[in-house]
Amino acid sequence: MAATQQVSIECIKGDIANQPDIDAVVNAANAELQIGGGVAGALHRAAGPGLGEECRPLAPIKPGQAVITGAHNLPNRYVIHCLGPVYGVDEPSDELLAACYRNALGLADDHELTSVAFPSLSTGAFGYPMGEAARIALMTVMNVSQNCQHLQLVRFVLFNDRAAELHRRTLETLQHES
Ligand code: AR6
């Protein structure tokens, strides 16, 4: 078996639709994989209508699931669409949220991708408290990425300074705990 390599995890403030140095960006999708608000709005608008068309036969997906498509007019190679849990509705929310990150990284590694950018899944319209979501997201990425053969960089792209700082502090805490 090939040796796995150390994966860098970074947390930045930015727009998930504008990450040109990244192989695959992750969409906080709806079950129908069509344009929505927040991340799904930003990515589908930037990608153009071809993304919705490619998604149609892949839908619907279930909470925790991930599917991969081309990136159309986005400056990336792929989009990985994840349906996060609606907080307090899709249970167990923590396991379903972790499954999103695990399944997305599995698809990225299957496609031999070296870099993936995630938004903070489920923390907008789906109501997941960001502190809890950040811990689950970062812990899952730290664990799963150890078993990826190709991955070198995972970037969390957060919409404001407060969210970016929260993710950086959570990452530091988890790295000290491990
Ligand atoms: N770049 C990075 N982060 C963003 C961006 C952006 N361009 N836009 C919003 N965020 P959400 P969810 C942040 O609602 O909770 C959609 O309508 C945002 O501040 O996009 O998984 C879909 O159609 C928040 O912290 O995703 C679904 O129905 C986080 O990204 C539903 O909402 C996720 O917010 C999915 O809800």
From TrEMBL:
Name listed for the protein in its UniProt record: Macro domain-containing protein
PROSITE patterns per record: MACRO
Domain Macro residue range list: 1-175
Pfam entry (one): Macro
Alphabetical list of Gene3D superfamilies matching this protein: Leucine Aminopeptidase, subunit E, domain 1 (3.40.220.10)
InterPro entries given in the database record: Macro_dom, Macro_dom-like
Superkingdom, taxonomy of origin: Bacteria
Organism: Litchfieldella rifensis
